[in-house]
TrEMBL record:
<dbReference type="InterPro" id="IPR050703">
    <property type="entry name" value="Flavin_MAO"/>
</dbReference>
<protein>
    <recommendedName>
        <fullName>Amine oxidase domain-containing protein</fullName>
    </recommendedName>
</protein>
<keyword id="KW-0812">Transmembrane</keyword>
<feature type="region of interest" description="Disordered">
    <location>
        <begin position="71"/>
        <end position="92"/>
    </location>
</feature>
<feature type="compositionally biased region" description="Acidic residues">
    <location>
        <begin position="71"/>
        <end position="87"/>
    </location>
</feature>
<keyword id="KW-1133">Transmembrane helix</keyword>
<keyword id="KW-0472">Membrane</keyword>
<feature type="transmembrane region" description="Helical">
    <location>
        <begin position="529"/>
        <end position="546"/>
    </location>
</feature>
Amino acid sequence: MVKKIHKSFEVGSDSNNIQADVIILGCSLPGIVTAHKLKKKFGNTMDIVVLDIAGTPKMISKCNVSFLTDEEEEETMESTEEEEEDNTEIHANDSMARHFLTKYAKELNIPLPECILGPYSKPNLNKLFQHRNGNTVECSADFHDFGYLNFTEKLELNQFQARLDHSMKNMFRYFEGDKESERKKLLYYDQTTMEQYICDSLLFSTSREIMRTTVRLVCGVPADSVSILFYLHQCYRTSSSRNHLDGDNTRLREKLLGYCRKRLVSQLEQSIEEITLPIKSIKEIRTYSDEQVILLTMMGETNYICNLLAMALRPDELRKIKVEDQLLSKKHAAISGAMSRGRAKKFVIEYDNNFWAAQGYSGDIFSVRGPIIWAMEKPNLSTTGSLGRYVSLIGYLKVKDNNRNASNNKSAVIEQLVKLFGPEAEKTISYKETEIADVFVPRCGDYVALRKFTGEVNTKLLEWSALDIFADGDVVSALQAGHAAYLHLLTYLRPQAQTFEDLSTANWPTVLNTDAAEDLLSYMNYKQSIRIVVYAAVIFIGFRLIRGYMQK
């Protein structure tokens, strides 16, 4: 399948060269998804090679869930397969996240538990919201309904999120890159930080803290590090900015638990094993006569030549490789090189019994005080319905970026849980916290250029879609990035091979049920109303003064 040739292409007559139609550089999850789809589509009719760079960290999430053994799964697979297929059809259109997770789980024959396919809340148990001063409020509805806030704060946050949804719909659903007005709007959103946007739009401190916490949950970094456009794009993956505070959000739960990442990676690597070549390192990528891409290795080893190269490297890996300006401009190299890694902390605390349920609580916590900022009862992730020996709470902790060597938060977490649930929270079985650093965030002002760079056809030789992997450890984001790269490659290689499903997935719409009146009202908030009143008063007083002066 892979052709070995000895034509030097000015890289030295002693060099051995391997040639292929398509080369995928990197074995990140998006890269192996791309390779798997291409191999499945073209089989042996096209030479496809995956280069696995030795020494590259695999970024396997530490949040993986323990699975049944292969033998046990084979016994239960037949009984659960029909039920899973029905669940997939029911829930696949709910959100982009669930669509990609169920699509690849079904394709690779991986069972998914019901709590992932159809998450649900317990209406008879209360959730807990904690204010900055430590006071708690019970609520039976979802956190994103804001029933625990007073009327003014609730109205303000609902208005603000309606505005975000409206902006998101305009940015990603109806965006036309050639429109100059849309381009200016994109630049405005990207050059204004999220923190400034929050402060300019929200009047009450509680509303601001909730949005800052939401940005931290969605992006993995503080609000003042995120551009509005980047935040909207992350919300776009789940079709709305409204449902990021609850365990019902599939992507947030799936990201937190790293569910089925290990199994997905294993199955995908097996499917492309025969076309994967281990290499030590790549020192340079350049073109030859604008017809082929050449990947030069270190120490005069084998070089690789292809007609089309797909990049599946993380931004920090790309910095080590020299790329010809024709393939990657200095501006784009600087943008990708400056992308910082987001950071969050996950905790799991085990108890002997479910005492919070006995008190009437679901285990769901949302706090703007910390150190716990969001938590839920760890769901049952067994595909057979079996229960664990202990019950657990799982969630995110506050992380201070300027203190990366912070000690364990166990005592502070237990103290917070005691305040929320009482003295029973002190009797723990185990406590564990782990770092989650799987999101790459571009600097404010760079995201527009990066989106254009990864979304447009820049050259017939190089495909950069898989660079848009801001969350390689986030399973759904990685699946989506790899699938997008596959669709882009398909348009270069054989456009007529695209199916209706391919085209519909590429143009996935956001699920936003808003009308014209809601869109108009979404731009009204307390601060905007105060400004309008002040401006109207100034105009009125000025008019009266001028009128009095004219009468005199």
